[in-house]
Amino acid sequence: MSRVHNWQIGREMEYPYEGARPKRQFAAVFDTNKCIACQSCSLACKGAWTSGRGQEYMFWNNVESKPYGFFPLGWDVKTLEKLGVRDQKGPVYEGRTLFEAAPDGERVLGYLPEDSDWTFVNVGEDDSAGVGIDRGAFFEIPHMQWMFYLARICNHCTYPACLASCPRQSIYKRPEDGVVLIDQTRCRGYRECVKGCPYKKTFFNPVTKVSEKCIACYPRIEEGRISTCMAACIGRIRLQGFVSTPENAREDNPIDFLVHVRKVARPLYPQFGTEPNVYYVPPIHVPAAFLGQMFGHGADAAVKAYRGASEDKDLLAVFTLFGSCPTLIHRFRREGDVALGFSEDGTEVARVPLYEPSIIRPFHDAARGAYRHNTT
Amino acid sequence: MRRTLLALALVVSGLPAAASAEEAAAAPGVSMVVVGGKGPIADVAAFAQAPALKVVLMPQVATTPRNPAPATSSLDVRAVRNDDHAGFLLEWDDDSPDVRARIDGFGDMVAVQLPVVAGTLPAPFMGNKGGRVQILQWRADWQTDVDKGAVTMRELYPNAYASDFHHEDHLPAAEAVAYRGAVSLGNPMSDRQRTSSVQDLMAEGFGSLTPRQTQAASGAASHDGKRWHVVITRPLEGRGESAASLAPGTSTNISFAVWNGSHREVGARKAWAAWVPLAVVK
Ligand code: SF4
Ligand code: SF4
Known about the structure:
The complex is a heterodimer of chains A (376) and B (282).
Chain A: E1 2-6, E2 11-15, E3 25-31, H1 40-49, E4 62-66, H2 75-83, E5 148-152, H3 161-165, E6 171-173, E7 180-182, H4 192-196, E8 202-205, E9 210-213, H5 218-222, H6 228-232, E10 238-243, H7 254-261, E11 266-267, E12 278-281, H8 288-295, H9 299-307, H10 313-321, E13 331-335, E14 338-342, E15 348-353, E16 364-365, E17 370-371
Parallel strand pairs in A: 3-12
Antiparallel strand pairs in A: 1-2, 3-10, 4-5, 6-7, 8-9, 11-12, 13-14, 14-15, 16-17
Chain B: H1 2-26, E1 30-31, E2 33-34, E3 53-56, E4 58-59, E5 74-81, E6 85-93, E7 109-115, E8 133-139, H2 140-148, H3 153-156, H4 167-170, H5 173-176, E9 198-203, E10 210-211, E11 218-223, E12 227-235, E13 250-259, E14 271-272, E15 276-280
Parallel strand pairs in B: 1-15, 2-5
Antiparallel strand pairs in B: 3-5, 4-14, 5-6, 6-12, 7-8, 7-13, 8-9, 9-10, 11-12, 13-14, 13-15
The complex binds iron/sulfur cluster (2 copies).
Residues 154-157, 160-162, 180, 197, 199, 201-202, 213, 274 of chain A line the site of one iron/sulfur cluster (SF4).
């Protein structure tokens, strides 16, 4: 085991290989408050990458309803249960990561999902059920019951558990962008990665007999374009780019700005120890205890910062750039009430007003002799 | 990690290799009975005159990941040769044959290992740097591919809803390759026109297992409800690079490994045996 630094848990940790950060690290911020579970992302990915034989059950991108939805069934609660529920309550995580908690003879604490765990994706997960919900219950505001949609892809972790699990070193992390790939010529289908990835984002293809995973649409990234799930997102909840370590954060990098400067986006289950690189704006209506477990110690502050976005024009500027163009935005700038996004070579690729013009039309339209209702 | 592993391999392999050098000479070995004919030996009947050696299997514990209690504790081995081929009959108890790899399920496997340089004793765990081994691995799911054709999702999951539309069927060949994953890249794991249930491999230690350029081995198998009866056969002469020679009148060493699919044994999670002498009778 080597000692590597994981900034998300604020300390050094054990990892089977020496740490080597890529030149830049693929990253994305997903705003859970805006996801409408339309599944455009899931289908965009499916059509692009997993329409082949043996891939029928795969969703490299999936969207599940929390807290009762999972793909595969129970993926996070099963791992949390094995790890011993241990939240990251401060900047330094005091519990064990999945590498440190690996049982004797294993490289990572993990489990292999059963076939049935992959079935019935999304079925029934929005239905109200369980303790505390009485017959005849209905939604009140503030929420009596709560839920939110969690869109998930491979996190292209800095310390991938899939990579650590593979005894053949068939998995590698690209030095140019941190994208984690399974070498399709080297894999022998052991499924150690499926067992090891806590996010369950590697998939065994029983027809090709080797494992496959999200490739972050790297051919698009190489052309400066955003990945297909990001481009397809009609909720405009996603912003893709590259994340720096906190000490190298650049204020004009929109991802760094959200993650490190305003700290409005948090990693998913940082306590697992893989340093995942999809960051989430936590849902603002969900109990703090739940958010703390899922997004670590900064979840409260993230919610607070997000709630204050209307007063924070720079933050608003970055949020307006979400889903604004098919090009990877490397830098942003706000000019008055306009947000500007720039590609790697400095070309302006997005220009979005912070506020949409509002037009108030009178209740009675004299020209047409009609009354307007807000439902029309 | 690499360094630790290597160090571990040296420590662990150093001992058994040295011990086995003497042990191997004294240990009861496998001696090939000569049968008539030429060509691959696929029929169990060919082994009627060959005595069985009971080989004790132990859990692989030298590297991670490992299963401390693999399902198989012994293997019965018989060996014969004809004019140009060697055959190994491997039989072991397994009352739950696993002949297809599902998403969460593994196939049964058995392997024989030979030092590439006859008579040497590389580390028994898949060899070591400079101590290359040839490994012939029979895979139950490959046997099913050979006997019944390539696996389909319909066969594995008859009740699952699955679309029958696949891009690869509707695109020009050059564009379809992108939709076939490892099949297009020629990974032998993914071969859809498989002709052998035995993969011919070489290794120089953990994690280095690599298919040989020349695939010269084949196999046959049957399961009687309680036991597997598997034949692995290959030419006596070593074909291609990194092939162990089995010239009549020479002696070398052989070792074995078994994987029980129902117990999720795969890769390093296996039961293995130390080297035993192998006499290729003249
Ligand atoms: S999310 Fe899973 S599959 Fe993706 S890099 Fe991390 S450990 Fe590997
Ligand atoms: S496309 Fe966007 S809004 Fe729709 S489900 Fe996916 S992440 Fe949510």
